[in-house]
Amino acid sequence: MAYRQLSRRLGVTTKGQREEIFAHIKVLRKNGLITLLQNDEYRLADADAVAAALMPSSAKKGGKKGESAVAPPRNLSVQAQFGQDPIVHRRRSAGFDYVDGDDRPDRAPSNTIIGTVDLATPSFAFVVPEGTDNGDDIRVFTDQLKFALQGDVVRVRLRSGSRDGRPMGDVVEVLKRVRPEIVGQLQVQGTLGFVKADNRKVYFDVFVPPHLLHDARTGDKVLVRINEFPTDNHRQPVGEVVRNFGQAGGNEAEINAIMAEFGLPFEFPSEVEEESEGISEVIEQDEIARRRDFRNITTFTIDPADAKDFDDALSIRQLENGHWEVGVHIADVTHYVRPGTELEREGKHRATSVYLVDRVIPMLPERLSNGLCSLRPNEDKLTFSAVFELDENGKLYESWFGKTIIHSDRRFSYEEAQERIESKEGDYAVEINVLNDMAHKICAQRFKQGAITFETQEVKFRLDENGKPLGVYVKERKDAHKMIEEFMLLANRKVAEFVFNLKKTKPRFTMVYRVHEAPEPERLQTFALFAQKFGYKLKLDNPKKISTELNNLSSEVVGKPEQNVLQGLAIRTMAKAIYTTEPLGHFGLAFAHYSHFTSPIRRYPDMMAHRLLEHYLEGGKNVPAEPVEEECKHSSAREKLAANAERASIKFKQVEFMVDEIGNTFKGVVSGLTERGMYIEIEENKCEGMVRLSDIPGDEFELDKDNYRIVGRRTKRIIQFGDVMEVVVKSANLLDRTIDFELVDNRPDYVKKREADERKNRGGGAPRGYRDYDKGGKGGGMAKGAHKGNKRR
């Protein structure tokens, strides 16, 4: 507690009473019963008193007759790691230290706002007001969050004044706790358990009484469900271990913990599996009769070598007029997954398959995703198709959409298809090369119309049988990948245009669109200033020339040290693509209308698009937009969650790979700068780690965030984004998923020794481990380098 809090609790009002309080505090400190922290805050130092204070009433029950339910710890090892306060990171400012029970002045009900919690750092969160897109987010320090977590709905009482231009407030009520579960590492001292969250933004630890540990031990990675949230900030939430993933640091424990952290399912409910197993494999003759038959037309799939769910196939044949008929055939998932079924409910909830480094968490059970719906070779399969008449230059003459049946003649891996493109030899080489030539011309036309070329690099791993990474590499996109992508883009675009044009007046027919809005002018100007530091001049004030300017930059930076930094930040400058019923177009692809139609095995919005398209092809009336829009929002949110989980699994595997590289030297580029250190991305494997500013040899460095660089105080040496550095791997922390580097120091040994002695005498040296907390507010800022994720069209 802070001195001011203590004084108010005791009713202190006069100078004499304050002096008496100080006298008592001096005695308590002298006797070692309390410890001074900072900002006049004091903490109990007696272990028994700490244990008793932390223990909620529910934890004191139980145990054998005559025995205490819990044994207080005899040392402070747990507190040394977790701290005795449930909220470790505190921030004090005038009027901030009100807590429950204080005589805070009443506020008018009109001064409260309902919103959703968005955790920013362990020190503060933002509450995003409901029902508005342009209202200012409210900054709430974690002392005043009432233990609300990410996504919880709260009522906030506004304060007077603001911080960093944002309104401030305190949570007065948690209206809805979305997911009161936390993943973290368990520490047990005596019989008391504490769980420290893996998510660094979670600002409190969870107390677990002995009878709710369920045989979990110190060092285990666990999922704990919070059963009791305290009414004040001086107790910790009480939880129960509901899943034990095993000792922290192991592959299964950490990947399963990532799944739990992001709320990903571990298995399908039994009723969903039973329903999928009950679907017949037999395709009835009357079903075939209702469909256009493509079984006698050359058809093949092209997918990754390790893929098992083939949801798209291409067919090709030459027409009498010399044109080519190209069919984009998509698994007819909605034929098997019917509305109102358990399969439908589960698919809608999951909304997307999730691709972690060493496993896939499918949207649909394997019986469907790898069996009934997968377009496996030499089997009749039901499909929903977009069929195009094209000439050899990729010019489109006719389009047709409808239900079909196909029979794939060949399953190609991307590597096998690439061999046909490069050698012009092998089975179906002629057909593949015709398609590839058309794809090149369609792509060129797309870029001519304003599509943007920036792409993120996708990191892949070579794993052994136990999931341990043996190598890290960047996935190379060759013509075979681009060919398939181009025809999928064509199908998605034409399906969207077809539905949009069915009705010429508003309201248009309801459809699921994949929308990517143009970037905000302010963000573009910020990026232009950043690029200018590297010598690139961008004119981004003309909306019609934005894509041209960005594409020119993309071409100029190829092969240069700053390539990944600039391309990554350019992508971050763009708006995020979402699902919606509003036909707002796709800025990045330069399409007026765009949908997702081609991956219904792994994306629920594609299933929605299939149902809507089928409905309109059969002459159905317009579908109400509101329920479709709600499903679009849910799918967008699940897609974001899946992307975050995928990134977390990649980061863990990168750290695991670097464990065996400690002491080795690599070349990398500066990919991010903060007040505490600079991030270096290794060129050959894209693993990113931190070099502390305090560890840079030869000078003391400070962040010049306005110019995206750090500057030495004495030497004025400048280090900025994109600079090439040689680093030595210092440490790799599997639990924190962090990597520490130190710069290669080629100075003479006597100079190094002198500097080390100076640091030692100053009491310097950086603390072990680091945590990447944004300093500048919600969403971070341009000063921190882009973290790469999978590209999602």
UniProtKB/TrEMBL annotation:
It is an enzyme of class 3 (hydrolase). It is found in: Cytoplasm. It catalyses: Exonucleolytic cleavage in the 3'- to 5'-direction to yield nucleoside 5'-phosphates. Residues 752-761 have a biased composition (Basic and acidic residues). The keyword Oxidoreductase does not apply. It comes from the Bacteria. InterPro entries: CSD2 (IPR040476), NA-bd_OB-fold (IPR012340), RNase_B_OB_dom (IPR013223), RNase_II/R (IPR001900), RNase_II/R_CS (IPR022966), RNase_II/RNase_R (IPR004476), RNase_R (IPR011805), RNR_Ribonuclease (IPR050180). Residues 663-744 form the S1 motif domain. Keywords: Cytoplasm, Exonuclease, Hydrolase, Nuclease, RNA-binding. Residues 752-793 are annotated as: Disordered. Its EC number is 3.1.13.1. 3'-5' exoribonuclease that releases 5'-nucleoside monophosphates and is involved in maturation of structured RNAs. Belongs to the RNR ribonuclease family. RNase R subfamily. HAMAP family: RNase_R. This is Ribonuclease R. The lineage of its organism: Bacteria, Pseudomonadati, Bacteroidota, Cytophagia, Cytophagales.
